[in-house]
């Protein structure tokens, strides 16, 4: 056996081992080159087989007849750019006259088989231009977020999409969101990623965790306010409504509506204010919304109506005041009582992890996309963290958040504890931590002793 043959065998063996154990490494070393060649060589044949070609134009046929040449072949979409990525390939196509972006989307599964890729998705960038994203391996099996992400003032990366792109939670684009998921579906890990992403930003975090604070209290050093029972939650939400009204007074005083002020500079929200006047934005995380809506007595029903009314007011009016809602739960249906569906209608962003029944998936996507409902109920139990993310436009994606342990989230919050703002309206709800100089006042309010 010659030295060249031995080297070739070793390379093939290394490629096979990498493809089995480290698919991301295999893609970056071998897969991206092989896939690019495969796409370029097979492109015309595959497009013709998938029905993505158009017959030659009349002038080309007339020219061929006039010059006594063979009739020209059908033409596929023109490749504008082929760009390798860390997870696959991005193919930008210019459609021919008579073609539609839906034609490419309908042929995605056939393109996946023909190009031997793991997944193929497409989207229309502008009229006549379609971007086809192809993944070379299962990026959701072992999520690895890229080192560099496109973050912003209220934009944090929380998960990876199945096409290899990063899924962001952009509060300025989608102010309020709903996250559903059964027990052990990965909902808590998604929430930890969200808190860890918000921790380095100049934002106040407010938590409502009616499981006695077991999910959010370990992260308390980065929270400006926490409530661990419905009674405290009702008072905390009332304080947030009071803060919202105060912020609107600040905006109104600084609207600058004189005739010489351009329209774009007239203030209608906190992001239109100068930096020195802009109030701190607030993100409210509700861990289990059903605990706020359930009641067993007349007194609890009054408290429940008070809580739901406050949440609806924050959802309707909070965006301009910089107050954003992240509501989590296992179910979010009309059985939780009046006002719940009104609240759900205000939650533009929707994320559904594995659910136990189709009705729960309908609560998230029934009024948005039937395809998303079907995708949500097909999430396997062994794929914890996989979720379907969508919004009111009808678009949806399959995503998975990287596994973040509670210790990792705690370390991140502790590292950025100095960024925790002290808001006067929420001072009574500031969590008291062990080892601080303050008196150890618990979050839960105890009933007074009676003789």
Descriptors for this entry?
single chain, 451 residues, alpha/beta, Threonyl-tRNA Synthetase, Chain A, domain 2, Rossmann fold, 10-stranded mixed beta sheet, 4-stranded antiparallel beta sheet, 13 helices, 14 strands, disordered C terminus
CATH architecture of the largest domain: 3-Layer(aba) Sandwich
C-alpha termini separation: 96 Å
**Structural class from helices and strands?**
alpha/beta
- Mean pLDDT metric: 85
Please indicate the percent range of residues in DSSP E strands (runs of 2 or more). Answer: 15-25%
Q: What is the alpha-carbon Rg in Å?
A: 27 Å
> What's the helical proportion of residues?
25-40%
CATH class identity of the largest domain: Alpha Beta
How many domain modules?
2
Largest sheet: 10 strands, mixed
Sheet with most strands: strand arrangement:
6-5-14-13-12-7-11-10-8-9
Gross morphology = elongated
Would you give the CATH topology of the largest domain? Rossmann fold
The poorly predicted ranges are 437-451
Number of helices: 13
> What is the number of E strands?
14
CATH homology superfamily of the largest domain: P-loop containing nucleotide triphosphate hydrolases
Order of helices and strands: HHHEEHHEEEEEHEEHEHHEHEHHEEH
């Amino acid at each position: 056996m010659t030295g060249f043959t031995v080297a070739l065998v070793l390379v093939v063996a290394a490629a096979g081992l990498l493809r089995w154990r480290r698919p991301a490494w295999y893609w970056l070393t071998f897969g991206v080159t092989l896939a690019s060649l495969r796409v370029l060589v097979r492109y015309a044949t595959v497009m013709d087989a998938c029905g993505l070609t158009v017959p030659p134009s009349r002038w080309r046929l007339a020219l061929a007849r006039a010059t006594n040449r063979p009739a020209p072949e059908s033409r596929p979409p023109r490749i504008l750019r082929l760009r390798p990525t860390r997870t696959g390939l991005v193919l930008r196509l210019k459609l021919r006259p008579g073609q539609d972006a839906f034609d490419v989307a309908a042929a995605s599964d056939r393109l996946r088989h023909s190009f031997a890729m793991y997944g193929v998705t497409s989207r229309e960038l502008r009229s006549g231009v379609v971007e086809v994203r192809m993944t070379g391996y299962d990026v959701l099996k072992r999520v690895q977020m890229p080192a560099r992400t496109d973050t912003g003032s209220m934009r944090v990366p929380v998960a990876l999409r199945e096409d290899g792109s990063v899924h962001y939670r952009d509060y300025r684009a989608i102010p309020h969101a709903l996250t559903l998921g059964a027990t052990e579906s990965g909902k808590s890990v998604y929430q930890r990623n969200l808190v860890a992403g918000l921790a380095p930003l100049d934002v106040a975090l407010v938590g409502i965790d009616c499981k006695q604070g077991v999910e959010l209290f370990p992260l308390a050093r980065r929270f400006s306010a926490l409530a661990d029972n419905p009674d405290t939650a009702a008072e905390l939400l009332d304080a947030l409504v009071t803060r919202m009204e105060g912020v609107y007074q600040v905006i109104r005083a600084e609207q600058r509506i004189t005739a010489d002020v351009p329209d774009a500079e007239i203030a209608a929200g906190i992001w239109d204010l100068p930096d020195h006047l802009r109030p701190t934005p607030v993100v409210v995380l509700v861990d289990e919304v059903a605990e706020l809506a359930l009641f067993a007595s007349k007194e609890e029903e009054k408290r429940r109506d008070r809580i739901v009314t406050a949440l609806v007011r924050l959802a309707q009016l909070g965006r301009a005041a910089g107050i954003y809602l992240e509501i989590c739960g296992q179910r979010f249906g009309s059985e939780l009582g009046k006002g719940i569906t009104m609240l759900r209608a205000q939650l533009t962003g929707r994320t559904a992890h594995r659910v136990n029944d189709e009705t729960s998936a309908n609560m998230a996507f029934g009024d948005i996309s039937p395809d998303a409902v079907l995708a949500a109920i097909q999430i396997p139990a062994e794929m914890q963290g996989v979720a379907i993310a969508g919004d009111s436009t009808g678009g949806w994606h399959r995503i998975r958040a990287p596994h973040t342990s509670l210790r990792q989230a705690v370390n991140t919050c502790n590292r950025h504890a100095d960024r925790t703002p002290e808001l006067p309206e929420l001072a009574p709800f500031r969590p008291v931590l062990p080892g601080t100089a303050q008196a150890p006042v618990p979050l839960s309010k105890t009933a007074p002793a009676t003789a």
